[in-house]
Amino acid sequence: MKLLNFGSLNYDYVYGVDHIVQPGETLCSYGMETFCGGKGLNQSIALSRAGAEVYHAGMVGFDGGELIKMCADNGIDHSLILIDKTEKTGHTIIQVNSDGQNCILLYGGCNRRNTKENVDHVLTGFSKDDVLVLQNEINLIDYIIERAYEKGMSIVLNPSPYDEQMGKCNLNKVSVFLMNEIEGAQITGEKEPQAVLEAMHQKYPDAKVVLTLGKLGVMYCDREQTCSHGIYKVPVVDTTAAGDTFTGYFIASILREKSVAEALRLASVASSISVTRKGATSSIPMLEEVEQANIPPLQ
Fold first, then answer.
1. Where do the domains of the chain lie?
2. Alpha-carbon gap, residue 245 to 265, rounded angstroms
3. Which of 69, 110, 132, 208 has a C-alpha 20 to 30 A away from that of 261?
């Protein structure tokens, strides 16, 4: 079994602010830092640090060398990352307020320049029972899902950011959904967590669904079971990669044949560690740290 993450690679430009800027407002930032990120890269690093062997596919521009180096430094196979010498790498502008909450403006750059020929080339090396992880920061998601499904791959989808591109995808071909309450509402039209899970089960009865709920923790359901996990009370510095850290650790734990309850616990611990640190990839903990963490009681 091989694990492929076909996803975004970005530079994150993070600005510290007293509050998130309002429409029409000019606001001075008290600090600016640059980090490697992108939901795809964040999740690949979380997967790798959680003990999984990962292939990462995607595109960077002429300025993307640090992102490829980040993959190499974290033991991620980056042979399927293409370099577009005519376009800039994708990037984000992130505001982080004094409470650690953020808002993110995303520029796709090379992440939106994948071709069908590139997708076919990437998937050549993968087959039945291999696992594909996707987010929605690259183009051709619908085509990637179709081609991977034809090969018999298990498809794990984080439908973020949820937009019209998701509407083009046949989500019946997704094996595992990992999403937050906003994305759950966008897919189902429901707002209450239990109603979201019930609607997801009705629409996609064969899929496993992980629904993260911020301060309310996380809920899970599949055909056989439902379970939940709370959050740990820790000082919040930056929530930028918390969801990606959770996603990577949950998937890696399931692939290591941990129970769902244990996978939720490990992912929750890893996510709680990540929010205490600045940046995206720089905030993701190693497996040993997660396993040995002295975490406060659940809320």
1. 3-7+39-88+112-291
2. 13
3. 132
